[in-house]
Amino acid sequence: LARDLQTQELVVIKQLFLGGDFEWQDLKLFEREAEVLKSLDLPTIPKYLDYFDVDTESGKGFVLVQTYIEAKSLQHWLDAGRTFSEAELIAIATSVLTILNYLHSRQPAVIHRDIKPSNILLGDRSGFSPGEAYLVDFGSVKTAAREDGTITVVGTYGYMPPEQFGGRASPASDLYSLGATLIALATGQHPSDLPQDN
Q: Is the pTM of this model over 0.90?
């Protein structure tokens, strides 16, 4: 979290440094995130503000600057013991589906690939609404048209659909992850802890 000295607005800074555990795939995903965010314009997705490289004592690094959304993640609320009513789950699902419809309707479709409670922020409650849902962390994003021959497995176990383990993802993969997220909110358990049949 930082403050833009020109506008005095709070912003989020995401940094990637070429350090000891750096892999070129990390830079590729980081640059893809900046490229995709630059093309998006939806109030429930952080806006791209800037992308640049820096030279520090630690070495070369890359920086992505986005708008700050003052909200807590669904994971925060789960960890705090909050339970969600059926009406709240429907409102959250509807809000996230609106975001996914926007992403998946783009040409080419934008696939988030890492939908989970920690990547969905929930604004303040108002009346009977659980709060506005925001989708953040586009670090695993890809476009449906992008196939470069390499398999990149990204996502979070329990929320990631089976096809994503093989490096394949489609808009339906995001829907699977949203479903797993809603199950976690409804049960208070991580999806991987639930009984599985095959």
A: no
